[in-house]
Amino acid sequence: MSTHTTGSAIRRIFIDKQSPAAYQALVRTSEAVRAVAAEAGLDRTLVELVNLRVSQINGCAYCLNVHTNAALRAGETPQRLGVLAAWRDTELFTPDERAALALAEATTDPADTTAQEVAYGIAREVLTDDQISAVIWVAVTINAFNRVSVMSGHPVRQR
Predict the structure, then answer these.
(1) How many Å apart are CA 97 and CA 110, to the nearest integer?
(2) Which among 92, 118, 91, 97 is positioned nearest to 107, based on CA atoms?
């Protein structure tokens, strides 16, 4: 059995290791979503911005670490990564990125129907149907990975 201790005395199970078939299904879903995003014409940096923003909202340190590195490899700048949590308060993001970030936030909090309507309105102005679908799938998938990592207590290790 895969267990470890986080900052508390409660031992957590690495559910990706405990139930590898389920985790591999999620990985395959992620790979399919990555292909859908590329086919829709979404830039890799935009996908990573969505991954990061959702991970910020969910407080997933492990995914923040993974996707910060992926964003930097894809050409994202430290400045934009540093202000991502306040993306609405800066002009550093393109209209497509702003639409994707709004959709990602609305997907992460599905009970906020007002945010969904606003996000769809913004997205309809700049994204295609394929791009809207791909952004929502990226957000759905990273939300799932966030929950796996948070509930498992995946550690962020010093490099």
Answers:
(1) 20
(2) 118
Distance CA 29, CA 120 (A): 24
pLDDT in tens, 12-40: 999 999 999 999 999 999 999 999 999 99
Q: Which amino acid is at 93?
A: F
Amino acid at 41: G
pLDDT digits (tens, 9 = 90+) for 60-85: 999 999 999 999 999 999 999 999 99
For the residues of the chain, what is the DSSP string, one character each?
A: --EEE-SSSSEEE-HHHHSHHHHHHHHHHHHHHHHHHHHTT--HHHHHHHHHHHHHHHT-HHHHHHHHHHHHHTT--HHHHHHGGGGGG-S-S-HHHHHHHHHHHHHHSTT-HHHHHHHHHHHHHH--HHHHHHHHHHHHHHHHHHHHHHHHTPPPPP-
User: Full-prediction pTM beyond 0.85?
Assistant: yes
